Amino acid sequence: MLIKYIFLFLVLITGCTNVDHHQKLSSTKERELTVGVVQKEIKTGMSQANVAAVLGSPNIVTRDSTGRETWVYDKIASEASRSESSTYGTLILVGAFGSSGTISTTQKTLTVIIKFDENANVESFSYHASKF
What we know:
Blueprint: H1 2-14, H2 18-24, H3 28-31, H4 35-41, H5 48-55, E1 60-63, E2 69-91, E3 94-116, E4 122-131
Antiparallel strand pairs: 1-2, 2-3, 3-4
């Protein structure tokens, strides 16, 4: 009985939970960047601070010869789904097991380009999304 409690204690001390793993991921804003968010939230004339508050940090920042910045958000996501079925049958001492399944993967990309004017306000923005 004592061994059972010691084992449980060790699992509680060293075990990870989904919350632990979730917290190690990048920020929620970066994971939730979608075309809908860009269309709804980004407006011409918006400040850089407001863009950063809505979309998070850009992947790429460039500055042209006149001092105007361009921010690029480039996101790639992979989704995987799995379906599996199995059967088991037995006849006295002989058993049989069979299984079949399939895995489907989808790739999504989203690129958002935001150009700012000399006052660091949104001059224009464009985006491209793909799914394959």
